[in-house]
Amino acid sequence: MKPFIYNIPVKVYFGEGQLSNLGRELSKYGKKVLLTYGGGSIKKIGLYDEVIKEIRDAGLEVFELSGIEPNPRIESVREGARICKEENIDVVLAVGGGSTIDASKFICAGAKVDFDPWDFLDLEKRAKIEDALPLLTILTLSATGSEMDNGGVISNLKTNEKLSNGSMCMLPKVSFLDPKNTYSVSEYQTACGSADILSHILEVYFTTENDLFMLDCVMEGLMKTVIKYAPIAMKDPTNYEARANLMWTSSWAINGFINGSKSTAWSCHPMEHELSAFYDITHGHGLAILTPRWMQYCLNDENIYKYVQFGVNVFGIDKNLSDREIAEKAIEKLSEFLFNDLKLQSTLKDVNINDENFAIMAKKACKGKESIKGFRELTPEDIENIYRMCL
Amino acid sequence: MKPFIYNIPVKVYFGEGQLSNLGRELSKYGKKVLLTYGGGSIKKIGLYDEVIKEIRDAGLEVFELSGIEPNPRIESVREGARICKEENIDVVLAVGGGSTIDASKFICAGAKVDFDPWDFLDLEKRAKIEDALPLLTILTLSATGSEMDNGGVISNLKTNEKLSNGSMCMLPKVSFLDPKNTYSVSEYQTACGSADILSHILEVYFTTENDLFMLDCVMEGLMKTVIKYAPIAMKDPTNYEARANLMWTSSWAINGFINGSKSTAWSCHPMEHELSAFYDITHGHGLAILTPRWMQYCLNDENIYKYVQFGVNVFGIDKNLSDREIAEKAIEKLSEFLFNDLKLQSTLKDVNINDENFAIMAKKACKGKESIKGFRELTPEDIENIYRMCL
């Protein structure tokens, strides 16, 4: 077990009626606010008006950047950074899901430099993120955990790249998590978000590093929560308990707490980033298709104990079965959850992806390295095999 | 489910070899450091020399307050606050367990006021804690969680009072958690610390408020961790894995995360505070004696579901048994853990406490109110009954 640093100073207002604190929290950082959001769903649910009222009541000046895309693009980041610099913005308020928040993080960082913000992400340049405008968020989708972590993923459609980077200075200062703001999330997006949350936990849970049993227990609890509540939220979208459990779980799945000292590379995320970089599919759906195949592909005699632990503790599989039976059953149960309970289509063909780009995507998934050194080391050949299993 | 605010901006250096960051972290707050510690065990384990070296290497000036007692007394707080004011201390560094850290919190607050720091605790005066010197901690005992929360408990032997209070300004800025610093903790103190951790979780787990299933899962994971590792640490005191799991669990048992929106009053803690206020027994041991009796006393048809959940999920009791059987078995399993595995004496008689002060202690446990409104409302008569069950 290696040493680690725990440091997550995000203040979270969780639950209903907390937006009355927004003006006061924003005012701590200045007078000029850039409000960022996506396609306008926040107007439909009345959140936009509420936010504008709070900002105006606090005597702050508001600028806007709307239209941030799912799988947010570098063009939006550039535009946001431009506004921040031209208008001398003091603080950015992101209202939306992970895409809006991720883009806003790089807007905050981009506002502080003279170069193109893509340089923060570009694998060769990899410019250091040393300063950023303060960011506050209002979450409307339980999925990426961006509201409580310091990273983000940005797409560049010109280069077919979807890349991530992070920095403590991009960590949100304050996040508002009101489960009611996710009531209007569609059945499909609820499923994709839940698959994303689950994947964040599985990427950490399935590593070869020995770490804290305590954190494994926490991860199992978070996974049981997703498995219990995602189908409820899909069926009954205004179920507060379900939305609340998914929302708080989304934050804790990726804010760093469950990692402890683990530093193993993630596997499914980089593989999925290529799917959505090439085909612009929904991230969580891509993860759902990949994850059970990745688990199947990685299974061997050395790591089977982890599958057994997962199967017994998360799905309640009878521990008296053989290890191999438990492992197979665990993958089966996970698939059932993703493809039956979450009703996600289970193959790449279903989402109109064929094998034509597999070779180049597999290479790109290694992000300039020779392999992904995750739970099991994956060469581009392995990755191509996994993509093929998903057809 | 009520709204809540999550806000725990403590930076934690977890693991070995992290003390090299101490000088840099202290320097952020000034030049003059007050080092506080207890009876000198930190000298025996070599930690004192290491700390002094780090402080001196950073060019800081160090003052000392040693001899802070278990169940720390208001006299130590007064003395620490006096030094801070006289020497213009910039930052306090507490090296020890919960007692040293709790006392240091009130030293930090006491340094900022002209009145007696007991006024912060006194039930009638209850002075507001609005400002405090910055506090850093180096933990040497896994128990109270004081390294990551904003409260503390101070004893006044003159008035036979053991009282608590808290404030965000007393929250440690940085805490150093090196499991090796707990290697020398005795078998008995390891047992008491573990009973304390378990009690912090049980006080939140056993409430009547509906809250997040996710947090119940986390609590069950933390409890399983204590149950698994406390006996290992007792048998094999230099077992890093056991010490690490207990240490990180102690912080998360009480830093506020597991509470969510729950605000129910705790029950066993105020009852125990009277035991150690009157008899100066070890807090965790008092809690161990009280907890199973409290659970037995509170059990009824309305709340039995919580016992069932606890028994099945924490102790793996067969869920096909009747609720009553599961509940009884759960209390039995908990008692076995506390009195067999942790080897703690199980009755008040064993620790030389008889019934002579039960009536006054029961009244005082209500802290000036008519009852403890916890998992089940407890009047002084109820509390006396529970004390009697412990004889």
TrEMBL record, chains A, B:
Signal peptide: none
Residues in Alcohol dehydrogenase iron-type/glycerol dehydrogenase GldA domain copies: 9-179
Keywords of this entry: Oxidoreductase
Ranges that cross the membrane: none
Domain of life: Bacteria
Fe-containing alcohol dehydrogenase-like C-terminal domain boundaries: 190-389
CDD domains assigned to the protein according to its UniProt record, in alphabetical order: BDH
GO molecular function, one term: methylglyoxal reductase (NADPH) (acetol producing) activity
GO cellular component, one term: cytosol
Protein name, entry field: Butanol dehydrogenase
Organism: Parvimonas micra
Phylogenetic lineage: Bacteria, Bacillati, Bacillota, Tissierellia, Tissierellales
